[in-house]
């Protein structure tokens, strides 16, 4: 029988060349991971992505001391809220990194107790901001309520769904449930908060592993087995290995993978004087009249970054179409 992929009368040398090509390809597939150059030191915030060469899984690893510190101190968080907001910020960064590159992710928690209602926004560029109602809370941060998850893609609509949480739940457990129930993606999300050697108090370190449609039951079984032996990425992030590559090699033992991309993470609030005016302008006219009644300027403070904006009432009266 002739091989239909081999043209009639093809010289024998072709097969040898093809064989060499196949061997080279296999050697490349099974080579050691290709790593990104110049990983930032453990004191800097970062998120890197790893991809299995056969596409079965992806791994993201992130660390944030600075961003969490800026948010926590800005909100004047006591220890419970401090730990919670740092975990929340990093977990949300990791989940956003699994979405399309131009999608933003917002989590809004609604609850009576704990740290109260909270919101975290993660933008496409790795910027993050967060706020919560009760930074002085002392009990479990999550007291039971609903987490609303909103994905927004530039130029397209919003995609929103919610998931319930119970008292004492961890943010990462709630998010894994959301990803399984709403997105039908099997995800392992793990975030830890530990003292940092730098001057940012605590640093949150975490990872997310997602099984892709190409992944098999055997791949999952191997990963679960590796998980037990690999430990946590946080302690593995040392000066000589700030990306915890040695940890990732244990986690992905038996798989072939590469580090493929990196993103900086940073505290970022896109509020501005223009946005404050736009917000005030969106109030019903009677409400706006009530706000500005008897004032010369309206002072408003951003819930996220605590910047105070001063808007002259003249400017708002112009919006109402009434002379000052
Ligand atoms: Zn702000």
Furnish the topology, listing elements before pairings:
Elements: H1 13-29, E1 46-52, E2 57-64, H2 66-74, H3 79-96, E3 103-111, E4 118-122, E5 127-132, E6 143-153, E7 158-167, H4 171-182, E8 187-195, E9 202-211, H5 217-230, H6 233-236, H7 245-251, E10 257-264, E11 266-267, H8 273-281, H9 285-292, E12 297-301, E13 308-312, H10 313-320
Parallel strand pairs: 5-11
Antiparallel strand pairs: 1-2, 1-10, 2-9, 3-4, 3-6, 4-5, 6-7, 8-9, 12-13
The protein binds zinc ion.
Residues 269, 271, 302, 304-305, 307 line the site of zinc ion.
Explain this structure.
With 324 residues, the chain is α+β, with helices and mostly antiparallel strands. 33% of the residues lie in helices and 29% in strands. A six-stranded mixed sheet has the order 7-6-3-4-5-11, with helices on one face. The chain has a five-stranded antiparallel sheet with strand order 8-9-2-1-10. A hairpin with a 4-residue loop joins β1 and β2 (57-64). Zinc ion is lined by residues 269, 271, 302, 304-305, 307.
């Amino acid at each position: 029988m002739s091989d239909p992929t081999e043209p009639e009368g093809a010289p024998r040398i072709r097969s040898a060349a093809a064989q060499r090509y196949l061997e080279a390809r296999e050697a490349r597939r099974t080579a050691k991971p290709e790593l990104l150059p110049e990983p930032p030191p453990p004191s800097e915030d970062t998120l890197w992505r790893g991809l299995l060469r056969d596409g079965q899984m992806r791994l993201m690893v992130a660390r944030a001391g600075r961003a969490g510190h800026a948010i926590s101190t800005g909100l004047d968080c006591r220890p419970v809220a401090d730990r919670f907001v740092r975990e929340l910020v990093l977990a949300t960064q990791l989940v956003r990194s699994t979405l399309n590159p131009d999608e933003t992710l917002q989590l809004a928690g609604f609850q009576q107790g704990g740290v109260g209602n909270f919101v975290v926004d993660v933008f496409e560029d790795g910027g993050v901001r967060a706020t919560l109602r009760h930074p002085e809370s002392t009990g479990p941060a999550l007291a039971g309520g609903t987490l609303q998850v909103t994905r927004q893609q530039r130029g397209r609509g919003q995609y929103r769904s919610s998931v319930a949480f119970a008292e004492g739940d961890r943010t990462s457990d709630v998010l894994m449930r959301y990803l399984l129930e709403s997105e039908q993606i099997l995800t392992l999300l793990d975030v830890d908060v530990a003292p940092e050697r730098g001057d940012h108090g605590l640093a949150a370190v975490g990872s997310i592993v997602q099984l892709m449609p190409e992944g098999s039951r055997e791949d999952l079984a191997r990963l679960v087995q590796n998980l037990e032996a690999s430990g946590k990425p946080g302690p593995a992030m040392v000066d000589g290995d700030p990306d915890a590559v040695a940890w990732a090699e244990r986690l992905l033992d038996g798989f072939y993978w590469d580090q493929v991309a990196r993103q900086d993470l940073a505290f970022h609030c896109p509020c501005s004087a223009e946005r404050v005016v736009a917000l005030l302008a969106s109030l019903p006219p009677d409400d706006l009249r009530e706000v500005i009644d008897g004032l010369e300027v309206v002072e408003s403070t951003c819930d996220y970054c605590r910047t105070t904006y001063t808007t002259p009432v003249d400017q708002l009266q112009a919006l109402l179409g009434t002379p000052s």
